[in-house]
């Protein structure tokens, strides 16, 4: 099953990586690598992570305070948001992109 990211989630990931890179050289690339690993784990075991709300599940990243919020669709996994765990936790709920 494929993992697809919404355009907004892609932008959130890019913004987070850019910020982390400014904080410490190489941290942005490490973050992107962790996100790739997370997407692969979700692809292999989509039901393994907790439900955040309704049909949306969350994968908590281990080395940064972000989570991937995703839904399981008939033919793919759809990442709705890449959310910071401590900032406005429910901001993504009204997104119409999924």
In short:
The protein is 36% helix and 29% strand.
Task: Describe the overall structure.
- The protein is of the alpha+beta class.
- Helices cover 36% and strands 29% of the residues.
- The chain contains two helices and five strands.
- The protein has helices at 7-23, 27-44, and strands at residues 2-5, 51-53, 56-60, 66-72, 76-84.
- It has a five-stranded mixed beta sheet.
- Strand 2 (51-53) and strand 3 (56-60) form a beta hairpin.
- Helix 1 (7-23) packs antiparallel against helix 2 (27-44).
- The chain is globular, with a radius of gyration of 13 Å.
- The two termini are 17 Å apart.
- The model has no long low-confidence stretch (mean pLDDT 90).
Q: Characteristics of this structure?
A:
98 residues, alpha+beta, five-stranded mixed β-sheet, 5 strands, globular
Helix content: 25-40%
Largest sheet: 5 strands, mixed
Count of DSSP-assigned helices: 2
Unreliable spans are: none
Q: N- to C-terminal separation?
A: 17 Å
Beta-sheet strand percentage? 25-35%
What is the SS-derived class?
alpha+beta
Shape: globular
Sheet with most strands: strand arrangement = 1-5-4-3-2
List strands and helices in order, with pairings.
Blueprint (H helix, E strand, L loop, with lengths): L1 E4 L1 H17 L3 H18 L6 E3 L2 E5 L5 E7 L3 E9 L14
Parallel strand pairs: 1-5
Antiparallel strand pairs: 2-3, 3-4, 4-5
Helix pairs in contact: 1-2
